[in-house]
Amino acid sequence: MSGNAQSYTATMPGGELDLNLDYHRDSSQWVKVSYLPGAHGSLTATGAAADVKTDAAGQLYAEVLRAGSAATEGYTFADIKAKRLVPAVTVSESPYYDFAGWIVNDNGNGTLDAGETLAADTDRFTADTVLTAYYRENPAYWIDVTIAPYDSNTLPVPGMRLQYHVKKDSLFGSIRASADAAFTGIANYVREDWYTGNGSKADTSTVLQNGETYRLRYVKNPIVFGLPAQDVDAVGGLLSDNTGRVTVFDTKPGYQYILTDPSGAVLDIVPGSIAGRSYFDNRTPGEQLVVYEATGDVTVQPGDAIATVIAAHPASPHAKVGPGHPVSIPLPNQIRIRMRSKCRSSCFRPMRARFRPLRRGQSTGPLTATRTRARPWN
Questions:
Q1: CA separation for the pair 283, 34 (Å, rounded)
Q2: Counting beta carbons within 10 angstroms of the beta carbon of residue 358, is it exposed (0 to 12), middle (13 to 18) or buried (19 or more)?
Q3: Across residues 10-15, what is the average pLDDT?
Q4: How many CA atoms lie within 13 A of 305 on its CB side?
């Protein structure tokens, strides 16, 4: 057989003849496009053509026609997508991020940096290329908050972070550690608590609000300016929904108030309040409890044993944990008072009193009054 690529000449045999035509890819005309999942998603070959394969490093890739000298030579990125030579992208942090395209020759951090571009449908590739999935924040699910001093008694630590860009449903606890480190107090002041813009306390379970400023307050150290921890005045009661509340009276900033069960297991801790009252809510009717006052430098958390807490904070020179004050949450039927009357209060005349002035020469003494008995209206 002889001939060239377009024409062949041969003598046909008398019997059957099988002709096999083999094609061999010219590797110089093809480039490898590899795909990386990026920071907030994953890739699969699901739904892609069989030509999307996995290399020895575990990366998905496809080989596409190289761009040539002619403007129409080689696959465009639109061609590559139409031929299903691109893997499927799954966003792992939806709805906070949306898939936004492919970064051309990403530097490896998965972020669209200066000098980097997203692959356009008209792009052709002249050499092996790595495309990294790129994800943009969904602005509806991100917020910005600020931390600041409560007043001049709280001092910022230079160079510390004061703004946070966080997910919409983030809790204050997610920034608490770094926020605490951003401030200190003036001499002889201790950290009291964080406050929201409306003046309420911000604890670890507080949901951060967009545009809100959270302020840290430092107050006078009770050991320096005030009295050591003492006994407390506290009482248990029921709210309108029959859940229990312990009210602690005469509470003071710079102190904290510890609630335990009778065995001494710490159940909850609340700070002292400027208003002079602190509360433990969501208690169970019939529950027996004990309340302690402690100075602000006492380290304690739910689950601790109060005996261990007291032992870890010696009373010299001042008591840091006061004596326990037992309280109980009443049962609903223990405080229900029923008043019955056949006549409303409007049935009664107001009480009248007549005062008799002293006569000249009469000795002074307590004023006397003559009262008339309340009588129902006729």
A1: 59
A2: exposed
A3: 74
A4: 5
Amino acid present at 362 = Q
* pTM exceeds 0.70: no
Place of tokens 């050991």: 223
pLDDT in tens, 324-356: 999 999 998 875 444 444 444 444 444 444 444
> DSSP characters for 130-181?
EEEEEEEE-GGGEEEEEEEESSTTEEEPTT---EEEEETT-BGGGTHHHHHH
Query: What b/e string do you get for 62-81 counting C-beta neighbours within 10 Å, with b at 16 or more?
Result: bbbbbbeeeeeebbbbeebe
Other C-beta atoms closer than 10 Å to the C-beta of 171 total: 16
DSSP 223-292: HHHSPPP---EEEEEE-TTS-EEEEEES--TTEEEEEE-TT-BEEEEEE--TTSEEEEEEEPTT-EEEEE
- Tokens in use for 82? 């139409």
Q: Provide the pLDDT confidence category of residue 185 given band limits of 50, 70 and 90.
A: very high
SS3 98: strand
Is the CB of residue 297 less than 8 Å from the CB of residue 307?
no
Q: Which helix (H) or strand (E) holds 32?
A: strand 30-36
Mean pLDDT on 124-149: 96
Looking at residue 352, its pLDDT comes to: 45
Please state, in angstroms and rounded to a whole number, the distance separating the CA atoms of residues 298 and 255.
Answer: 9
Structure tokens at 337: 């008072």
